[in-house]
Design goal:
Keywords: Cell membrane, Membrane, Transmembrane, Transmembrane helix, Transport
Pfam families: CbiM (PF01891)
Shape: globular
Order of helices and strands: HHEEHHHHHH
Structural class: mainly alpha
Number of helices: 8
Radius of gyration: 18 Å
Subcellular location: Cell membrane
InterPro entries: CbiM/NikMN
Protein name: Energy-coupling factor ABC transporter permease
Length: about 220
């Protein structure tokens, strides 16, 4: 989703920017900056560059309807939800700085893509920890694969809902022409998130902030 401020009234874009700025301030306040691992932080910065490349690999049918991977679920699992929100904002600022996004619509895009995707992934992780067994497969498949695909669908649904309510496109065009493409793209998001998460957990578990050896590998004979 790549919304432009020209598709909506100017007051909507400014209101979205104000709300996004407030949300980012809360996220920055909640991040435990002094407890962050320096090596992991460098890796997360590299992840931002990788995610920026994924956002650039996009296609679109009409203004505001672009198709690209998000990386929000992977960011949430690697960094935790608060830092993930900041990182995704940095990715979108990088896009705008390169002329690939509308500066005035940054808040709108963050609210409709990054925020719902991160919230869904974070809630899914909380529910999995509470109701599902603490197993490595559960973490990779449920929190990685399934949450990755669901997070993209959630972000796409929020964007399509706003476009429909604003009357930018007719509902039948959004539901019949755009939504199916997002369902197809969600499989790529799910596979990429699950695969990268599994590799990182095996080889660089200290980069994955939400992974706990004692919880997920405590009973394994080959525990590190």
């Amino acid at each position: 989703m790549d919304l432009s401020a020209s598709l909506f009234g100017p007051w909507i874009a400014w209101l979205a920017n104000a709300l996004a700025l407030a949300g980012l301030c809360v996220a920055a306040w909640r991040v435990p900056w002094r407890q962050l691992d320096a090596a992991a932080l460098n890796a997360w910065m590299g992840a931002c560059v990788f995610d920026l490349a994924l956002w650039l690999l996009r296609a679109g049918l009409n203004p505001g309807l672009s198709f690209h991977m998000l990386g929000a679920a992977l960011f949430t699992l690697l960094m935790g939800p608060w830092l993930a929100l900041l990182a995704l904002a940095a990715v979108q600022i990088g896009l705008a700085a390169g002329g690939h996004a509308d500066w005035l619509a940054l808040g709108l895009n963050w609210l409709l893509t990054a925020l719902p995707a991160v919230v869904l992934t974070g809630v899914g992780l909380h529910l999995a920890r509470r109701f599902l067994p603490p197993h490595f497969f559960v973490y990779v498949f449920v929190n990685g694969f399934l949450a990755g695909g669901a997070s993209l669908i959630c972000a796409a649904a929020c964007g399509l809902l706003v476009l429909g309510l604003a009357g930018v496109y007719p509902w039948d065009a959004l539901l019949e022409e755009a939504l199916p493409y997002y369902f197809l793209l969600s499989w790529s998001e799910a596979f990429t998130t699950g695969l990268l998460l599994a590799v990182l957990v095996v080889y660089r578990p200290h980069w994955v902030a939400t992974f706990d050896d004692e919880r997920y590998l405590g009973d394994w004979p080959g525990k590190r």
